[in-house]
Amino acid sequence: MGILMTTKTKHFLSSIKTHQETKKIDKFEGTLSDYLSIVETDPTLAELAHRRLYNALTGYGVTKMSEADPRCRKVFNGEEIKTYDYFQSHFFGMEQSIKKIMRFLHSASLKGEESRQVLLLLGPVGAGKSALVEHIKKALEEASPIYHIKDCPIREEPLHLIPRSLREEFKKTYNISIEGDLCPVCRHNLLHEFDSDYMAVPIITSTFSIRGRRGVGVVPPMDPNTQDTSILIGSEDISKLDLFPEDDPRVLSLNGAFNVGNRGVVEFVEVFKNEIEFLHTMITATQEKSVPSPGKQAMIYFDGVILSHCNEAEWNKFKSEHTNEAILDRIVRVNIPYCLEYTQEEKIYKKLLRSSDFNCHIAPHTLEIASMFAVLSRLKPTNKVDSLTKMKIYNGEDIIEKGLIKKVDINDLREEHRDEGMTGVSTRFVMKAIDNALADSDKNMITPISMRDALIKQVKEQVTNEEDRKRCLLFLQKTLHEEYLRTLEKEITKAFVSAYEEQAESLFNNYLDHADAYVNATKVKDRVTNEDMEADVNFLASIEEQIGIKGTAKDNFRADITSYMFAKLRRGDSIDWKSYGPLREAIESKLVASVKEISRIVTKSKSRDNKQQKKYSDMVQTLVKEYNYSEDSAEEAIKFAANNLWRDS
Ligand SMILES: Nc1ncnc2c1ncn2[C@@H]1O[C@H](COP(=O)(O)OP(=O)(O)O)[C@@H](O)[C@H]1O
Ligand SMILES: [Mg+2]
User: Fold this and answer.
1) Any idea what DSSP says for residue 125?
2) Which of the residues 182, 272, 512, 636 has an alpha carbon 20 to 30 A from that of 546?
3) What are 326-360's pLDDT values in tens digits?
4) How far apart are CA 538 and CA 273, in angstroms?
């Protein structure tokens, strides 16, 4: 009796069938003459590994960051930044590192010196080195299959079959130079199985596969006692030594990382955990583009991208030993620092949370506070600005001070400490705190408050260096506590003031009308009655004092704003209350101040009367509907504000 087939299964089985059929079509089997015609129409098929990888990565698209993007102007200081679509939705705030990696691959793809170098990604734990390499390798799995000699253990390029004496002519005809010679196994097969008739050797295609060890070889860090070069170059199969003479290539098991990674990638994980002797193959592979063969065979041609990564401590130790010079000379180092833009850092957490089973309410600003903390811990102090300000500048924000946008050059700050981002807390540290905050919550939610507590706890448990620990705790207990209160105050005001945006806009319009009249000594036309009236200096001052503008500074501020806004209008740009940072801040705090007293009463649970209770519920509802709170998290936030912001004096 058969099992009745269910709909979903039926549907999925049909997908399987199509998949199997397309795979069949993709499979090619032919000879060198077929391959020559194929290469004639598509010469890229015969490209070397660096070029193939570079094309695979750029094939997804390269985008020039728009100058309109505030990150372009403020974070990259107008520098032209190319972003690679393949990395865009997976990696955040690492455009500069990715750019350097791509620059390496680009030069290598043009057969520059880089094609004979090892790429080393150097950075602190959890900065994304492994993830980057994984992602790069994956691009090969998605790439088109390669053509290679059938039964070749290193899947070598079919053009190796063409004898040396014909290569000159081949180059003239196809404009392709052939690099490398047949591996010992193919050479043996050619002589004995095909009677030297290279046109008879079968050629097939196959894809790259990380798990299938096709085109991607990985070398994990090895214990010095068990380090064995067979991991790199394969070995002789002892069981076959009885069957064949000692120098017969049929005894070879070419399954080392350099064999497997031929035409693709060889990755060295935590590379300098290995003994130096073990790494010598890396030098030959780059310098001579060949690797030793196990046993007594000739060297084997190798064409592949060598990627490695390690942390700074290991690198420094390795670098300090002058006997390592030969390898150092073969290394192109790219630093992979931690992300220093907190908005980008936040995206990392979101990405990691999406890929886990994590399922709970995350109150607004929770991940923001966590990412601010992470970035603060990574920044080096400067005399130019305080840490929080530096963090905001690195995030591309305008800093407003005494009614002006503070002019601090982001590059000056960066120049001060060129190795910034190589220390501080890791992404994983924060992820663990997020998990702990959830585990401690009884309402299946995390909030900025529980997040901060979890981080404090974790710093106390895990940060052992006394100075770092003090600094981290100061950030959490003071800097970010105050920052969160400022954010919360604005948010509660917004939820509290009905039609917040309209009120802000109307304050803005009035301000502009009166400031304009004041500056030009004209009258203001009342928007309702159409009557002419004097500029209301008290009103103007009530806005300006919000950001500490007093005395003669007022005149300058008014003149600046009017010329700024009218210049914008003349250019055809639209203006609104958010157009100019300092004014926006003044308007926001004016609105905050206007509801301060009533906020204080309503948020205090003890003193609410019926009318106030209604206002309170409305506020909670607004926070839920418009600001992504849950009822619980809104109540927690309001309670926190009541206890910290509007304490009875
Ligand atoms: N800038 C970043 N963008 C996206 N994900 C990141 C970034 N930095 C770290 N990660 C994520 O953090 C995790 C830890 O990174 P990992 O690659 O293991 O670090 P490393 O090898 O440098 O120690 C990974 O899941 C990675 O995807
Ligand atoms: Mg790693």
Assistant:
1) T
2) 636
3) 888 899 999 999 999 999 999 999 999 998 887 89
4) 70
